[in-house]
Amino acid sequence: MIPRSEIRRGRSRLQDREAALEPVTASTDRFVATVAALHDDQVAGATLVPPWTRGHVVTHVARATDSLCRLLDWARTGVETPQYASMDARAAEIEAGARRPVAELVADVRATAARFEVTVSALPPAAWHAEVRMRTGESRTPATLVPTRLRELEIHHADLAAGYGFRDIPADAARWIVDDITRALARRPGTPPLRLETTDTGLVRVLGTGGPTVRGAQADLLAWLSGRSPGTGLTATGVDTVPPAPYWI
To answer: What is the pLDDT, as a whole number, of residue 16?
Structure first.
């Protein structure tokens, strides 16, 4: 007979996994709905990350999902598996898929999303805290890697410039992404000192000491931090204008 304590731990782990996947699944559904509403002649439309078209962005989201599956397999098996074979290979994959019709793009995103959920569900408890290395050199565990898919989906959804903007990102997701970016910046040598304050959610984050304060709505702050906005809607104290956001990825 399995001890009740072990049953409870198993249920807790399952609930934690489901809680991690729930916002990712909802974000995927929103992203797919936007892509599915496009016409084929809109796939080549401009985005917030030129020279990428919408087709490039959607293909990147699918291929990035595959790359996260490789890292999760690394955590599960202990066999080192790079996120991408090379940056040239990554670029070639994106270019190869960028001009597909909408139906193929949607099918790709859905299929990779399903693989991602299966891969996460297949992780044994011990693998959940195994360290793997992202293409940036940053170490992550599956527990902190799974939410990066939420970051990819939400920021690239806004990148499509197809009716979904940074103000449409759920507040909890936006807050996590802001925190994820600031943690990455805090780990990086040479990040300039900076204080971040949101005027709507009460979020305050400080990088170093003595830097300017950048203040505004959380959505506007996220758009700036991710390099998608020059600082529209934000104010800055300690400097004449809102400075360029520190490069983070």
So the answer is: 65
Beta-carbon contacts of 42 under 8 Å, excluding residues fewer than 6 positions away, are 54, 102, 162
Asked, as a colleague might, if the bond just before 193 is cis with ω within 30 of 0, I would say no
Low-confidence ranges of the chain (pLDDT < 70): 1-16
DSSP β-ladder status, 213-216 and 235-237: antiparallel
For position 9, what pLDDT does the model report?
46
pTM of the model: 0.91
- Given a contact cutoff of 8 angstroms between Cβ atoms, the answer to whether 34 and 122 are in contact is no
Q: What is the pLDDT of residue 248?
A: 85
> What is d(CA 152, CA 233) in angstroms, rounded to the nearest whole number?
23
Tokens coding 32: 């797919």
Q: What is the CATH number of domain 4-164?
A: 1.20.120.450
Residues paired with residue 214 on neighbouring β-strands, in sequence order: 196, 236
pLDDT of residue 61: 98
Domain range annotation of the chain: 4-164, 189-237
pLDDT tens profile 83-129: 999 999 999 999 999 999 999 999 999 999 999 999 999 999 999 99
